[in-house]
């Protein structure tokens, strides 16, 4: 990405203003409003550009895709597409271990944990945030992992894994239920990986 002061070439069209000092922030604000009002699926780059009062080419100047715009506007601590790539990179019979390892890796970093706590609290208290996360995470993580499993009930299996992970995160990081809260990540990986693998391949 380039600084906000750099304007994209040939992006100006009649009725649309060029990039300014806070153009990127205004695009993100419009994106958050659009995602909240329409949901992930119905939101488009053109709709966000229209609400921000800029040309769609300027949105593409700052954000490569709608996925990236979603990630930035929701202030996610990780890129779900990278999470999916890390999960899928390896043998099928170690899928459960990779999933819980990647998940804990996000939560155990100080910045990641703070932001994930905020997201989890928002998800359980706001229908709009829950809908956004459901649509976005389904497209970027659940669907790709389900394709790897290649079973008639693959999506159910993956969402069972998601329910297990979210329940663990809620009890460990928000409720701080002991001894789960003080267990080491290595111990959790050892205990949880076989259970997740059972959901996925048994």
TrEMBL record:
Stated name of the protein: TetR family transcriptional regulator
DNA-binding residues (ranges): 44-63
PROSITE patterns for the chain: HTH_TETR_2
UniProt entry tagged with the keyword DNA-binding: yes
Keywords, ordered alphabetically: DNA-binding
InterPro entries according to UniProt: Homeodomain-like_sf, HTH-type_TetR-like_transc_reg, HTH_TetR, Tet_transcr_reg_TetR-rel_C_sf, TetR_C_16
DNA-binding as UniProt keyword: yes
Residues in HTH tetR-type domain copies: 21-81
Disordered: annotated segments: 1-24
Signal sequence extent: none
GO molecular function, one term: DNA-binding transcription factor activity
């Amino acid at each position: 990405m380039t600084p906000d002061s750099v304007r994209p070439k040939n992006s100006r069209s009649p009725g649309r203003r060029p990039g300014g000092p806070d153009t990127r922030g205004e695009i993100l604000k419009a994106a958050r409003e659009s995602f909240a009002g329409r949901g992930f699926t119905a939101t488009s780059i053109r709709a966000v550009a229209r609400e921000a009062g800029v040309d769609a080419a300027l949105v593409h100047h700052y954000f490569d895709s709608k996925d990236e715009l979603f990630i930035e506007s929701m202030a996610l601590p990780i890129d779900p597409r990278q999470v999916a790539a890390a999960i899928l990179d390896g043998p099928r019979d170690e899928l459960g271990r990779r999933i819980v390892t990647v998940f804990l890796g996000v939560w155990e970093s100080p910045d990641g944990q703070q932001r994930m706590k905020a997201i989890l609290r928002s998800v359980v208290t706001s229908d709009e945030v829950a809908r956004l996360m459901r649509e976005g995470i389904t497209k970027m993580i659940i669907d790709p992992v389900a394709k790897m499993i290649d079973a008639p009930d693959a999506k159910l299996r993956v969402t069972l894994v998601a329910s297990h992970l979210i329940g663990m995160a809620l009890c460990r990081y928000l409720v701080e239920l002991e001894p789960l809260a003080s267990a080491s990540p290595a111990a959790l990986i050892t205990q949880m990986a076989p259970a997740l693998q059972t959901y996925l391949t048994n």
